[in-house]
C-alpha cells in the first residue's frame, strides 16, 4: 500500500534529509504514522479486552516496537511476504491486515483471520503477505528462507522479511536458516527486533556477542545495526537490504535496537529489569513521539493532523472490537475442519 | 491411595510439590542442579522453580539461552560426566527441538557404549491443553518418549506423586522424562514433608470398583474419578487406575483389575491415535486378561486435530467428565 | 494385489521406483523439486536420487548443508508459498532434529491459520535396521508421526506401491511423510511405466486366508507372506494385510478381515511398545470386530532396546520369519 | 600419558624451534609419531577386515587426518575428556585406547569397548576420557559443553575437547553449543577437522564463510586456523587453547585444515572430487611423512627408528585383529542388557 507511493516521492526539503523524507511522499509518511498509532491502540485495545475477559490465553504486546514493524514493512507490497513472531500484532498490522479481523481472531470468532483456531500467537493475513506469527521462537526463520527460495525459483521479484527477536538468535534454526539463505543468495531480509530481553533473559546473559548483527559475519552477509525506534533509520536500512535482495545479491541481517514497554506476556512479574530502564525508554525514545516530532518539524503534519489520526484510529479500533464482539463463535461440529485440505 | 497420603495433612499445590522436591534434592546432593529458560529470576513460565534461584544461586538454577537442543545436550553431557541436571522445557512442545539429544543420545548412550556410562538426567515437560495457548503450546507428547527404550517416562497426577516421583527420578541412574499437566500446577493436595519417593513403574489404583476399569493418565485421573463418582450414584462401580508411569508400564496392575471388572476404558488427553491408550488396550488384548473381557476396550483420547485456540473448540478436543460418564455408562450397560 | 500389477511385466527395484516417481513428477510439474543432503552428485546415501541431478540440474536436485531442522523448514516455507518440495532425510533417525518443523509447523500450519494455506510437502525417511549401522541409524519412528494430526504417513512395502504412493503424496495438498525401509531399496518387483497413483489411506490384502489376519507394515509384509507360505503347508491359512498407510489408518479393511478370520496379529519392526501394532490392536479391540475375536490380539514388534551393532543381536531385535511362523501357529492352534 | 612429559621438555635446538620441540621431549615426540602410525595402520587393518567380511555395517576412515587427532590429544590427560565423531577411530587411539578392544568392537565382540553394541560409529573408551564417537553429525557438540560444565562446576581443572567436521558446523547444535560455552566461559576446545567436504558437499557449497574459524567471532571466542596436517601447528594452537581454558577464560575454536584420503564411508563413488586433488594431498601434505621428515631433520629419530616403530605398530595391529577374531560373540539372551542401569 504505502509502497505504491515509492516512485512518487516528493523530496520536501532537499537532499540531506533523512532517507524516509527523500524517498516517500507526505501521504505515505502520514500513513506510516497512522499505522504506528493503529498498532499502539490495537495493542492497548487487546490488553483491555484481555483484562475484561474478552480475550483468553496469553498475548505478547509490541507497544514500544512500532517503528521497526512499520519502518520495515513500509516499502513492501502485498506480494512480498513476512514471517512473524509471537510478538506479531504489529507486524500483521504494518503489513496491511484489518484490525477487525485481528480482534475477531483474538476473540476466537469465525470472522477472525484464522477462524478462531489460531489466536494471537498464530495471527496471520496471508492475503497481505503475512505467513503468520509463530509460537515457536525461531520457528519462522527457515520458513522465511523457504518462501525466499520460492521467490527465487519463480523469479517473482518478491522479497521475504523474517522478523525474530534477540532471544531467537540463539536457536539453532537461526544459524541454519541464515547459512542457507547466504549460500543460495536468497531474497530474504532477517530483521532482529532486539528489545534487550528474551522473556527475562537479557542479551548480555544469553548471547555471546554484543550485537546480534555481529553474527552476520558468520554468514558473510551485511549486518546492519539501526536505531530501531527511529522509523527513518529502519526504513533506510530496509530499503538498502531490499534493493540488494531484489538484485539477487542475497540476504541482509538488520538489527533494530528497541524495547518493549509491557511485560513479556500476561504472566510477567517484571523482576529482571528496572523501573528506571523502562521509564527511560518510554520517555526518551518513544518511537511514535519521535516520529511525530520529526514529521512536525519537517512540516509533514501538524498537531491537528496528529489528533485527527489518533481519533480516527480510536474509531477504527472501537469498531474492530465491536465487530469482533458481534461475530459468531465457531461451531464445535467443525472441530476437525482445516486439519487437512478439503479435496474435491 | 498410599498410606503415606492418609497421614499427611499439609497441602501443597502440584507446582509447589515439584519445587519442594527439587529443593530437597539440591540440599541433599550437590550434584543436582537446574537448567532451563527463565527458571531463575522469572521463576519459570509456570512459576515452578519460583524463588529457588534466591536459595541456591544462579549456578544451580541456571537460566539458559533459548536453545532447547543445545540445552538438553548440555544436560546430557553434564549427566554423563557425573552431575545430576534437571532440565526444564518451558513447554513440552519444545521437546520437538531436542528430540535428537533426548532420543539419540540420552536414551541410547548407555546401550551404545555397552554399559560404560549412565545418563542420570531428568527432564521436565509442562504439557497439555486448556490454557488457550493454541496448537504449538498445548501438546501431549508423552507417547513419543514412551516409544523409546532407554528412557523412563512418568506422568504424575497429584502433588503427592509429583514430589515423590520427581525425587525418584532424580535418584534414578537413567534418563527420566516427566510430563506435568499445566492445569495441575495449581491443584492442591496433601504432600508429606521431607524426603520420600514414589516408585517409577507402578500404577496406582485410585478408586476400587467392580464394573469397569478406567486407566487414566495425568489430569484425566481426576476427570475419571469425578465421572466415577457420578456413576456410583447410578449404581455403576468403577475402578480408576492412575497409570503414573508410561514407560515401563505397569502391566500387572491393569491386568489384575481387568480380570476383576471384565471391562476396560482408557482415558488420556493426547491425540487418540497412537496415544497411551493404544498401548494399554493392546497390552490387555494380548494378555491373559483378554479372556475375561466382556466388552470392547474403549479409548477416550484427544481429537484428531491440533489444539485450537477458541476455548469451546479447545475443550471439545480433549475428553471431559461428561464424555467419560457417557462412555462408561454405555460400556457397562452394553449400550455401546 | 491391484490389477495394475498383474499386467505389469517390467521389474524395478524399490529405489528405482521411487526415483522414477520423482522424475515423472518433476517432468509433469515444474513446481516439484528435491532437497536433501548429498542427493546431487553423490546420488543420495542410498542412491535413490541417483543421477537425477544430471537430468534436472542442481536447482531441482538441491544439495543442502547438514541442517535438518533448517532444511525441513525451508521445504515447509517453499511448500506454503506454492512449490512442491520433496525433502530427503539421509536417515529417518535425523527426523529427531526436525520434529519442530514437521510437527509444529508443517502439520499444524493449515489448521492454525484456519484453512488459509496448505503445505504440500513430501518428506522421505530411509528407515529401519538390518544394515549394521547401530542405534542412531536404524530406528523406525513412523509411530511418532502417525500420532500427529495434520500429517499423512505412509510405508510402502513394494516397488509398485513406492512409486504409486509417492506420486500420490506429491500430488497431495497436505504434508506426507514416507518411511522407506532401507533393506527394501534393492528389492525388485513389477512397476508399471508412466504415471499412476496408489491411494493414501488404503490398506492392501496381500494374501487371503481364513484362520488369522496378520497386519504388517513395510518390510514385515514380506516376512509375514513368507511365514504364511510356510504355514499353508501345515494347513493354516493366513490373510496378510499390508497396512501401507499409518495415518489415516484403513480401519475397515482390517475390521472386515478380522470378522472373517477371528484372529489378529500385528507385525512391525519398530519398538513394540507404542508402535503401529498398538494402534491396530486397539482399533480392533474397540471396533465391532471385537465380538468376533476368538483369541488375544498378538503383537510382534521390535525389542525394547536400541538397535545393537552386532549382527546377531541386531537380527534378534526385530521380528523374523521364524518368530512369525511360531507365533502365528501358536495363535491359530490355541497353544498360546 | 604423553602429557606427563610436558614439564620435562628437552628443548633440543634452542628457542626458535617449533612449539612442539620446545615443549615436549624426544620420547614424547616419538610416541606421537607412533600414534600416527598406529592410527593409519589401524584404519588400514579395519579397511582390510571390512573387505574380508570380518567387519560389517559401515566405517568412516580418518587416513590423512592423523596429525589433528594426535596433535590435539598430545597434551591431554586421561581425565581430560573428548567427544568424537563418526570419523572417530583416530581420536580414540590418540586419546589412549587399546586397538585390540577397538578391533573387537568392530568385530562385534563382547571384548569390544562397547561389548559389540556400538561398533565403529559409537567407539568409545571412557577410561581414557573418550565419551564416544557419535552417529549424529554435531551430536557431540552440546554434550562436550555439558562435560565442560561439569569440569567447571566441580573445579576439576579438566578440559574437554569437542571434535567435529566442517559439515557439522552448519548444524544448529554447533551454534547453540558454542554460544553456551562462550557465555558460561567453559573449559572446552572446539576442534573442527575441516577436510573440505561433508560427505560429497564441499565447504564452499555448504558454508557461507570461507573458514569455519571465521565463525568464532559470532561467539566472541578466539578462532584459530591451523595447518591441520602439521602436528606442531596443531599442538601449538591446542596448547594455547588449553591454557586459556584451564585459566577459566573460556572456549576456543580451532580449525584444522586437513583431508581424508578415502571415500566418505564404504559406499562412496568419489564423484565430487578429482583424482588430482586427492593425489596432491597424499603426496605433498601427508601428515606422517611431514612429521617423519621433521623429526629426522631435528635428530629426534632416524630411519631405523622409524622402521622399528612401523614394525612394532604392525605387530600391535596384527595382535589386535587376532584378539578380536578370537573373542566371543555376545549372547543373544543379553539383548536387553545395558538399556537401563542395573540397580542393586
Ligand atoms: C522454541 C521456543 N522456546 C521457548 C519459547 C518460550 N518463549 C516465548 S517468547 C520467548 C522469548 C523470546 O525472546 P525474543 O526472541 O527476544 O522475542 P521477544 O519476546 O523479546 O519479542 C520465549 C522464551 C518458545 N515459544 N519457543
Ligand atoms: C544429523 C546428521 N545428518 C547427516 C548425517 C549423515 N552424515 C554422516 S557423516 C556426514 C558428513 C559429515 O561431514 P563432516 O562433519 O565434514 O565430517 P567428515 O565426514 O568430513 O569427517 C553426513 C552427512 C548424520 N550422520 N547425522
Ligand atoms: Mg527480545
Ligand atoms: Mg568434512
Question: What can you see in these coordinates?
Answer:
The complex is a heterotetramer, with two copies of chain A (344 residues) and two copies of chain B (336 residues). With 344 residues, chain A is an alpha/beta fold. Chain A has one domain: 3-Layer(aba) Sandwich (Rossmann fold). In chain A, 42% of the residues lie in helices and 9% in strands. In chain A, the strands form two sheets. In chain A, strands 1-2-3-7-6 form a five-stranded parallel β-sheet, with helices on both faces. In chain A, strand 2 (160-165), helix 7 (172-183) and strand 3 form a beta-alpha-beta unit. Chain A is globular and about 50 Å long. Chain B has two domains: 8-197, Thiamin diphosphate (ThDP)-binding fold, Pyr/PP domains (Rossmann fold); 204-333, Rossmann fold. Helices cover 37% and strands 19% of the residues of chain B. Chain B contains 13 helices and 14 strands. Chain B has helices at residues 3-7, 14-28, 52-56, 68-80, 99-106, 109-112, 142-146, 159-171, 219-232, 251-261, 276-285, 311-317, 321-333, and strands at 11-13, 32-36, 61-63, 84-88, 122-127, 152-154, 176-181, 188-190, 204-207, 212-216, 238-242, 245-247, 264-271, 298-302. In chain B, the strands form three sheets. Chain B has a seven-stranded mixed β-sheet, sandwiched between helices. In chain B, helix 4 (68-80) packs parallel to helix 5. Chains in contact: A-B, A-C, A-D, B-C, B-D, C-D. The interface between A and B is large, with 42 and 36 residues. One thiamine diphosphate sits between chains A (60, 86-87, 135-137, 165-168, 195, 197-199, 264) and B (37, 66, 68, 90, 94, 97).
Amino acid at each position: 500500500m504505502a509502497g505504491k507511493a515509492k516512485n512518487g516521492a516528493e523530496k520536501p526539503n532537499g537532499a540531506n534529509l533523512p532517507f524516509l523524507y527523500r524517498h516517500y511522499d507526505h501521504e505515505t509518511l502520514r500513513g506510516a504514522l497512522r499505522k504506528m498509532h493503529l498498532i499502539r491502540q490495537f495493542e492497548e485495545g487487546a490488553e483491555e479486552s484481555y483484562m475484561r475477559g474478552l480475550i483468553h490465553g496469553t498475548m505478547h504486546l509490541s507497544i514500544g516496537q512500532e517503528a521497526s514493524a512499520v519502518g520495515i514493512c513500509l516499502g513492501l507490497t502485498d506480494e512480498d511476504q513476512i514471517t512473524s513472531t509471537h510478538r506479531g500484532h504489529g507486524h500483521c498490522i504494518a503489513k496491511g491486515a484489518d484490525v477487525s479481523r485481528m480482534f475477531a481472531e483474538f476473540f476466537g470468532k469465525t470472522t477472525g483471520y484464522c477462524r478462531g483456531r489460531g489466536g494471537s500467537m498464530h495471527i496471520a493475513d496471508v492475503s497481505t503477505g503475512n505467513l503468520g506469527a509463530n509460537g515457536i521462537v525461531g520457528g519462522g526463520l527457515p520458513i522465511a528462507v523457504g518462501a525466499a527460495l520460492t521467490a527465487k525459483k519463480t523469479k517473482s521479484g518478491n522479497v521475504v522479511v523474517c522478523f525474530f527477536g534477540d532471544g531467537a538468535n540463539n536457536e539453532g534454526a537461526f544459524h541454519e536458516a541464515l547459512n542457507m539463505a547466504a549460500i543460495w543468495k536468497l531474497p530474504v531480509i532477517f530483521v532482529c527486533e532486539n528489545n534487550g530481553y528474551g522473556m527475562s533473559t537479557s542479551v548480555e546473559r544469553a548471547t555471546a556477542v554484543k550485537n546480534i548483527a555481529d553474527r552476520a559475519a558468520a554468514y558473510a552477509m551485511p549486518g546492519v545495526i539501526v536505531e530501531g525506534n527511529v522509523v527513518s533509520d529502519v526504513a533506510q536500512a530496509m530499503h538498502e537490504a531490499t534493493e540488494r535482495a531484489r538484485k539477487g545479491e542475497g540476504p541482509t541481517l538488520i538489527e533494530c535496537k528497541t524495547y518493549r514497554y509491557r511485560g513479556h506476556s500476561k504472566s510477567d512479574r517484571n523482576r529482571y529489569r528496572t523501573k528506571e530502564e523502562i521509564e527511560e525508554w518510554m520517555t526518551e525514545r518513544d518511537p511514535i513521539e519521535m516520529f511525530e516530532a520529526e514529521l512536525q518539524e519537517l512540516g509533514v503534519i501538524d498537531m491537528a493532523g496528529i489528533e485527527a489520526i489518533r481519533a480516527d484510529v480510536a474509531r477504527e479500533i472501537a469498531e474492530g472490537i465491536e465487530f469482533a464482539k458481534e461475530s459468531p463463535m465457531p461451531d464445535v461440529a467443525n472441530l476437525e475442519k482445516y486439519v487437512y485440505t478439503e479435496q474435491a | 491411595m498410599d498410606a503415606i497420603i492418609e497421614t499427611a495433612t499439609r497441602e501443597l499445590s502440584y507446582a509447589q510439590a515439584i519445587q519442594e522436591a527439587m529443593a530437597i534434592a539440591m540440599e541433599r546432593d550437590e550434584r543436582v542442579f537446574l537448567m532451563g529458560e527463565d527458571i531463575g529470576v522469572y521463576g519459570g513460565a509456570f512459576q515452578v522453580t519460583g524463588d529457588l534461584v534466591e536459595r541456591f544461586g544462579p549456578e544451580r538454577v541456571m537460566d539458559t539461552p533459548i536453545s532447547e537442543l543445545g540445552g538438553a545436550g548440555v544436560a546430557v553431557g553434564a549427566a554423563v560426566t557425573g552431575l545430576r541436571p534437571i532440565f526444564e522445557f518451558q513447554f513440552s512442545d519444545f521437546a520437538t527441538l531436542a528430540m535428537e539429544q533426548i532420543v539419540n543420545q540420552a536414551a541410547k548412550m548407555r546401550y551404545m557404549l555397552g554399559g560404560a556410562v549412565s545418563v542420570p538426567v531428568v527432564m521436565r515437560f509442562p504439557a497439555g491443553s486448556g490454557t488457550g495457548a493454541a496448537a504449538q503450546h498445548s501438546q501431549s507428547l508423552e507417547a513419543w518418549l514412551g516409544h523409546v527404550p532407554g528412557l523412563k517416562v512418568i506422568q504424575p497426577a497429584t502433588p503427592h506423586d509429583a514430589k515423590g516421583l520427581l525425587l525418584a527420578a532424580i535418584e534414578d541412574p537413567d534418563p527420566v522424562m516427566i510430563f506435568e499437566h499445566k492445569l495441575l500446577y495449581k491443584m492442591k493436595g496433601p504432600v508429606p514433608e521431607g524426603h520420600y519417593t514414589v516408585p517409577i513403574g507402578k500404577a496406582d489404583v485410585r478408586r476400587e470398583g467392580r464394573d469397569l476399569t478406567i486407566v487414566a493418565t495425568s489430569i484425566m485421573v481426576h476427570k475419571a474419578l469425578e465421572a466415577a463418582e457420578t456413576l456410583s450414584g447410578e449404581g455403576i462401580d468403577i475402578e480408576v487406575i492412575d497409570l503414573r508411569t508410561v514407560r515401563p508400564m505397569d502391566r500387572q496392575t491393569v491386568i489384575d483389575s481387568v480380570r476383576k471388572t471384565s471391562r476396560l476404558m482408557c482415558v488420556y488427553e493426547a491425540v487418540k491415535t497412537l496415544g497411551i491408550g493404544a498401548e494399554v488396550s493392546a497390552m490387555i488384548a494380548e494378555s491373559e486378561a483378554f479372556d475375561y473381557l466382556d466388552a470392547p476396550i474403549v479409548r477416550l483420547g484427544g481429537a484428531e486435530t491440533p489444539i485450537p485456540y477458541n476455548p469451546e473448540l479447545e475443550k471439545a478436543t480433549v475428553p471431559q467428565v461428561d464424555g467419560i460418564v457417557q462412555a462408561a455408562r454405555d460400556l457397562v450397560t452394553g449400550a455401546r
